[in-house]
């Protein structure tokens, strides 16, 4: 989703800068070079040292809210996405066409990001909430 359908770069940078205030010593530039496509909880465990499952869940939600809140220019739809999404529409005469979005983001963030970018999305899609292990790091 991020980097394929939407650009949330401003928000992600802002969220890491916000978390650097809570977790001193975070090197945002280093994190940004290796965190794309990795589940938020996995990144927070790795970079912030959060091990308690409940704290990790809470902080992941806080981080993803910060992405939306610190996106000064908004979460934007990437070029070309509108025409692709229009072609996937059942109104295009393809009522049986099925597609989904898979993302390492949580369902709450994915829904917020797609909505903020003006992208219609399926009611059901695959998110970090649906898997036990994220992408290999």
Write the layout of secondary structure elements.
Elements: E1 6-7, H1 9-22, H2 28-34, H3 40-48, H4 53-69, E2 76-77, H5 81-88, H6 107-116
Antiparallel strand pairs: 1-2
Helix pairs in contact: 1-4, 3-4, 4-6
List keywords for this structure.
two-stranded antiparallel sheet, 137 residues, mainly alpha
Task: Give the overall shape, derived from the CA principal axes.
Answer: globular
Rg is 16 Å
| Total tally of structural domains | 1
* Largest sheet composition: 2 strands, antiparallel
Overall number of strands: 2
Report helical residue fraction: 40-55%
Continuous helix count: 6
Q: What is the structural class?
A: mainly alpha
Q: Outline the low-pLDDT stretches.
A: none
User: What's the order of the H and E elements?
Assistant: EHHHHEHH
Tell me, rounded to a whole number, the average pLDDT: 86
Distance between the termini: 18 Å
Could you tell me the strand content as a percent range? under 5%
Order of strands, main sheet, comes to 1-2
Notes on the protein architecture:
- The two termini are about 20 Å apart.
- This protein has one domain (about 5-130).
- It has helices at about 10-20, 30-35, 40-50, 55-70, 80-90, 105-115, and strands spanning about 5, 75.
- It has about 140 residues and is mostly helical.
- The model has no long low-confidence stretch (mean pLDDT about 85).
- The chain has a two-stranded antiparallel sheet with strand order 1-2.
- It is built from six helices and two strands; from the N terminus they run βααααβαα.
